Please model this.
Amino acid sequence: MNQKNLDTYCQNTWCPGCTNFGILEALKRTVSELIERGIKRENFVFTCGIGCHGKNVDYLNLNSFYGLHGRCLCTAQGIKLAGPNLKVIAFVGDGDIYNEGISHLIHAAKRNSDITVLVHDNRNFALTVSQFTATSPKGFKGSSTPQGSIEEPFNPLELILVSGATFIARGYALKIDHLKDLIVKAIEHKGFSFLEILQPCITFFDNRKFYEERIYEIKSPLSKEEAEIKIREWDYLNGEKSKIPIGVFYKVEKPTFEELVLKG
Amino acid sequence: MKIEKISKEPSLLLTGNEATALGLAKAGLKFYFAYPMTPATSIMNFLAKMEDLNVKVIQPENEISVINMALGASFAGAKSAVGTSGGGFALMTEGLSLAGQSETPILIVESQRGGPSTGMPTYNLQGDLLFVLSAGHGDIPRFVIAPGDAAECLYYSGLGLNLAWKYQTPVILLIDKDVSENTFCVNEKILNLIQSEKPLLWAKSGDYKRYKITEDGVSPLAFPGEKDAIVKADSYEHDEFGITIESEEVEKMQEKRLRKYETMKKAVEKLPAVKVYGNQNSNIALVAWGITKGAAKEIAENLGIKLIQPIIIEPFPQKQMREVLKGVEKLFSIELNTTGQMAKVLNSQGIKVDGKILKYNGRPFFVKEIEDKLKKLL
Model:
């Protein structure tokens, strides 16, 4: 499989040096590897919301539905219901799914829909030139909060664990091989797989140094109790001394939503 | 006491909602997505109970999820429908616009209750006509169909689902609370008129283009999983392949959808879009739609005047309407709303309405009260 075949003619409009290039590269390596392992190219389907992350589907020569801001997990679940053999992967952003579409995220995890969610978490609304999102640290100086955001961030991994996700992982956009392995595992997981990708926004929130000083890889698997502890190790605040674990935090097998709906 | 035997053939006893569900199932519905909302809820309850119809009922977290899930299922090739009332439909309008832009088929049942806002959930008003005609941001080609009893629900729900797939665009079935929940006798033979029609599919040669520019504006469909086809749907303006663009080229796609609308308009003229009752030769005519046609029909017959019932309202059946209005000198609209929304629609089509008989306390029209009001107008 020639990876070039995965590119479209669409002109790339991310900022030069955008860390989304890292995620796109990891994704293309994932798809190539899975095609070599026997998954048919035509069985991949991508959805996305609106934000810098969404441009991925224009750059990928694969089936896709470029959906609405915050709503693409709904579209992804509809696709999976109608095409249970399809590999349905949703690109979402932090503003997209932790703000606008938060109810859809919680319920998709709750029903264990067999889709893969890749969150490009750059911790600000970058496409609209930088406003705070649910994971921006308190004091974030964006264009709508010149004096700093007054809200504390939430920890999306903690939220998704209590919502019932059966696969929870975190990766880093610039650790491409590690990220590729995580995406492969997420897609191979039967059930709702959630992969939070820390994605420094080099234009509006360049925290590469912050992440790279703190990130370390964890060993899996963990029990639910161990996962809770690891997930709480870093609370999405900035400036603190805590380390930031990446890797697979939690994985459990449960019947999927689509299996239960379509049986009989 | 002796009970006389009736010679009439047995017929189905159905509510409008049950008939709608049956019509959709007969036209090949695979998934029905809904969030509970009176008076549409019994469609989902009925489909969930009637397992033999083989329609899977999905109850997502809210109406926004309802329509976006349904669009995902349609995109992947499964005939899908959603149902709600005015407030739920308001939440769906972002998704309605997505259906128009991405050219994804969907049938939406909007069962009206008294509005505005939470309004009168278990009473009937016809206050959502102008809303469904203009809902959604941007120009969206759509069908709006308003059946007036359960028999019409059965026929037009099946027709509507097929139209959604033929023209890859949203179809809104606008019904009234009293059509939804009242029980009617329905001729079983109507079911024979409904088939699950095949949409226009890709011929499997050459590169597949989801939004291929065509003369009639309809681009052949393919679904994810189809070998040698890459299927890209897009909520942004896009090129033929489905890649986002913002160049002046966008005009071509806008014009493709405009041509599709013209094709839809022509199709409407060949469908039973307008019905006429009473004295066809009268120079006085009533216009009534939805549940109101029942009482209006009785009056037309009693007074020897004409009743016109528009059923397909968008695209507006101009030719059929012009035909039934021939010889009519006075036209009165009878509606369950405060402003005469159908009269406004007719006015926008250049049809003058001479008077309006309106009622808006949530209760149905009685024959006598329309007669009294009409006599004052005449």
